[in-house]
Design a protein that fits this description.
Length: 317
């Protein structure tokens, strides 16, 4: 059963009427094609109207939609072949991060990303997509392996943040993320980073240093979530909508502030409505971008990568 967000209720009502109409027509063997066609057009028109005027908080809600495709979904739909690799060679394998070598449209590459869960058991297993230090160390190990074999790297970012538990801090969470930032700047192979859902804080940034940083249309990227920002400023989550507006967390905001390189469009209504179409759009963007980056020398890519990130937040008078 499809999940509707609060602002999608008008669409839900029309789609419910359409389903009832089709069911009655089938039971009574009546032709209602004209009426259903008209209602379908009304649904499309309404959906366009709603999704062209989404608030920042509504886009945050979409980024967390329970039916939204996760890293594992893109891997299954996009790859002709995928070999998952495990472990950081120090402590354990962190299931919050998935990584391995893949064949996508005839192009071999390393795919790497945070993975949330679809049900309670899987969410606990994946730690709700919040990596521990060993997750970032696994990611770095795999990226270094890709560099060794001259394979491009694509990362999928979707996390509410790195795991904030005491044990994570004891094992060096901050150091693990910091090391990833340093090492990713110097990778000699093309690196594409794509925010497919939530891009929160250093948990996202730990695998988000790339030649091209892209965001799907209905995602967010910020140092803190709107709820936590609201808690700090107003001592309550009740002002999360205002916090989202003030923080400017959406893909359009990030592009306007030159913090990302591009926005990947989603199917009308959001990526959760059609995983296959969203995957095809993303696959084309990845292959086209890799073709563009492959034309540059490793030295030029590294220089441009460093210059891009160093220019963020700098004001020249």
């Amino acid at each position: 059963m499809r999940t509707y967000l609060d602002f999608e209720k008008p669409i839900a009502e029309l789609e419910s009427k359409l389903a009832e109409m089709k069911k009655l027509a089938e039971e009574n063997n009546v032709d209602v094609s004209t009426a259903t066609s008209s209602l379908e057009k009304s649904i499309i028109t309404l959906r366009k109207e709603i999704f062209e005027n989404l608030t920042r908080w509504q886009r945050v809600q979409l980024s967390r939609h329970p039916d939204r495709p996760y890293t594992q979904d893109y891997i299954k739909l996009m790859c002709d072949e995928f070999i998952e690799l495990h472990g950081d060679r120090q402590i354990r394998d962190d299931p919050a991060i998935i990584g391995g070598f893949a064949n996508v449209g005839g192009q071999s590459m390393l795919l790497l990303g945070q993975q949330k869960g679809r049900n309670t058991k899987e969410r606990q297993h994946r730690n709700f997509g919040m990596p521990n230090p060993e997750g970032y160390r696994k990611a770095l190990r795999l990226m270094k392996l890709a560099e060794k074999f001259n394979k491009p790297i694509v990362t999928f970012i979707d996390t509410p943040g790195a795991f904030p538990g005491l044990e994570a801090e004891e094992r060096g969470q901050g150091e693990a993320i910091a090391r990833n930032l340093k090492e990713m700047f110097m990778l000699k192979v093309p690196v594409i980073c794509i925010i497919i859902g939530e891009g929160a804080s250093g948990g996202a940034l730990g695998i988000a240093i790339g030649d091209r940083v892209l965001m799907l249309e209905n995602t967010w990227y910020s140092v803190i979530s709107p709820e936590n920002c609201s808690t700090i400023l107003w001592r309550s989550w009740d002002y999360k909508e205002q916090a989202a507006e003030a923080m400017k967390v959406t893909a359009r905001d990030m592009k306007d502030n030159r913090l990302i390189d591009g926005i990947v469009p989603e199917p009308l209504g959001g990526a959760h409505l059609d995983h296959a179409v969203m995957t095809e759009i993303l696959k084309k963007v990845i292959l086209d971008t890799l073709k563009e980056l492959s034309a540059l020398s490793p030295e030029d890519r590294i220089d441009q990568r460093i210059e891009k990130f160093c220019s963020m937040g700098v004001v020249v008078e």
